[in-house]
Amino acid sequence: MGQTGVFDVDLRGLIDVLGNNLYTNPGVFVRELLQNAIDAQAVIGVATPVEISADGSTVTVTDHGVGMHAGQIAELLGTIGRSSKRDEWGFAEQSTIGQFGVGLLSGFLAGDRIEVSSKADGHSAVHWVGDAAGTVQTAAGDRTDTGTTVQIVARPGFERWFDADRVARLAAGYAALHPTPVLVNGVLVNPPAELFDGGGRAAAQVAYCQDEFGFTPLDAFEVEVPQAGLRGVAFVRPDGGDLVSRAEHRAYVKGLLIGGLPELLPEWAYFVRVVVDATGLTPTASREDLVRDDLFEEVVASLGDQVLDWLAGLEKRPGMRARFLGIHEQGVKSLAVHRPELIDFVDRHALFETNYGPMPLATFRARFGDLRYTASVDDFRVLGEILAGRGYGLVNAGHAFETGVVRALIAADPRIVGEYVTQDVLLSVLGEVAAGTRDRFAGALALASTAVAPYGCDVALTEIEPGTLSALLLTDDSAKLARDRHEMLSEIAGEPDAWLAAVAAVDANDLAVPTRPMLVLNVANPLIARLPELTDATVAGAVVRTVYSQALTRARRSMPADAAGEVDAAVMLLADFATRRTDR
Questions:
Q1: Residue by residue, what is the 3-state secondary structure of 333-398?
Q2: Whole-number pLDDT of residue 506
Q3: Which of 47, 146, 235, 337 sits a CA distance of 20 to 30 A from 408?
Q4: CA separation for the pair 539, 571 (Å, rounded)
């Protein structure tokens, strides 16, 4: 024969579950009691102060709200999960925050006993006592006015959570934006913040940012999401921030703190911290987070759009734009590589080094048409002046993230013609050498090729201004990487590991032969112009190796040790040769 029963709840086991899985620390009982008190007053529209007292062994919270009679005490405090803040269909009251019926249990995280004295209008007062062992007692109370008083008695070892200063700090943080005054031992801990209303809200916003986030904002702007009943303030950081670890934002629901939520803004908006208060967002059971429902996702998207609107508004605020970019330019560039939301702002306003001075990429395109760029700072230093002399603009995208930004911009807008400057591109715009000059340099070119062959370098001729430039050293990154891989494999004794073996196989099957570095001799230079006159191959080789060392220095390339030794020998040879000629 079947039997009908009820769940038998182990209160100590339930408290352990709450402490380890629902709440983050025992001090949350201050928030839960404070929230219950504020909700009780909100039901009947009372705005008198909620009074808290703390003496290191007990915490007492008193409100002047709706109160409870004996029947409600038995039903609500004796039934775990039952809440007075849900209607008969289970929906939450609009004026209250709590709705899960477990808030009072948080008192057992730090206390051994909870006492409740309450009186509802038209009913006799009632006194209820519950202990952590799960026993309860209900008796007639002596309260004369409507409302409720809850007292938590500390468990041995948890007295620090009942310290008056700590309780005051907790209450001040939880109720910072709530209009209900909260007194701790007679002192008001939540003076009106006025973040969203009043003529003094600008000063209040800065003060809040300093107190809660620890910085004075570079700028502040208000945000709102009407469908969530959300108002807030966004604060622009005055420093670079952390691009890896997402900063927490402050979220309040109906004026009471929910917690710090990193996900409240899109990840790319690292340079902004926000504080928001909402009526439509749903807290989780612990009230330390928000439910990630469709409305929450709408809020995140809307707040992101409003940050983008602020960025767009910098178009008309050149002073603020300059200050913002002076701090966040590199961070915004780094995120724009993968965040299309930022690419337009970076394109229009972030400065890139060019051979015609710093300018945004949009300005560069307006002036030169194609987006010609190089991915190496060293190459830019060598090539920029030469290309500028022929009217070609060149962007230095060799700094951190900038090549990625340029390529992301090209990928995002098919109208942009991008040109990555390689060795072949440069040679196509360098000065052509007349046939007669090329014939005259045929022997010198052969000697020069022999002189730099040990460095894996080819030789070519050009005729460009300025004539003070003796030579350029053009390198190809793919060739350098291939050589590096080859050297890694050649230095490993025995069988290479799986990764190196795979790389070697790719190299072996690659039919395209990488371009070697090339030393481009400028025949307009007086020294290079005399190379055909040097009939002594040793002297000519010494001159070419010296020119090669100058080209390396100009390109900011490090010189291999063997090459450095040979260059030193070449200089000594030239010095010795010059000395012998002087002696004669």
A1: HHHHCCCHHHHHHHHHHCCEEECCCCECHHHHHHHHCCEEEECCHHHHHHHHHHHHHCCCCCEECC
A2: 42
A3: 235
A4: 10
Tell me how far apart the terminal alpha carbons of the chain are, to the nearest angstrom: 130
Whether residue 414 has a cis bond before it, omega within 30° of 0: no
Within 10 angstroms of residue 295's Cβ, the number of other Cβ atoms is 18
Residues 6+ apart with CB under 8 A from 350: 325, 329, 332, 333, 360, 361, 405
Bridge partners, 236 (sequence order): 219, 272
Say if residues 372 and 354 touch (Cβ distance below 8 Å).
no
| Cα–Cα nearest to 360, from 401, 317, 316, 329 | 329
Which helix (H) or strand (E) covers residue 131, if one does? strand 126-131
The tokens describing 290, both together, are 């928000």
SS3 257: strand
Neighbours of 162 (CB within 10 A): 24
Q: How far apart are CA 351 and CA 348, in angstroms?
A: 9
**C-beta of residue 458 within 8 angstroms of C-beta of residue 449:** yes
Pairing of strands 50-54, 182-184: parallel
Q: How far apart are CA 431 and CA 339, in angstroms?
A: 41
> Which residues, in sequence order, are CB contacts of 415 under 8 Å at separation 6+?
none
The pTM score is: 0.72
Taking CA atoms, 155 is separated from 59, 137, 224, 356, in Å, by 12, 19, 44, 73
545 vs 262: CA distance, rounded Å: 59
Polymer length in residues for the chain: 584
Query: Which residue is associated with the tokens 């590991």?
Result: 497
What is the edge-to-edge ordering of all strands in the sheet holding 418-420?
353-354, 395-396, 371-374, 418-420
Average pLDDT per block of 10 residues along the chain, 584 residues long: 46 57 76 90 90 96 92 68 40 36 74 91 92 83 93 93 96 92 96 85 93 94 97 94 78 90 91 95 84 95 95 94 94 88 93 96 95 84 77 90 91 90 63 87 91 86 80 65 52 48 45 63 89 84 85 72 66 65 51
CA distances from 511 to 478, 489, 515, 517 (A): 14, 19, 12, 19
User: What is the b/e burial string over 347-366, where b = at least 16 CB atoms within 10 angstroms of the residue's CB?
Assistant: bebbebbbbbeebbbbbbbe
CA distance 519 to 456: 10
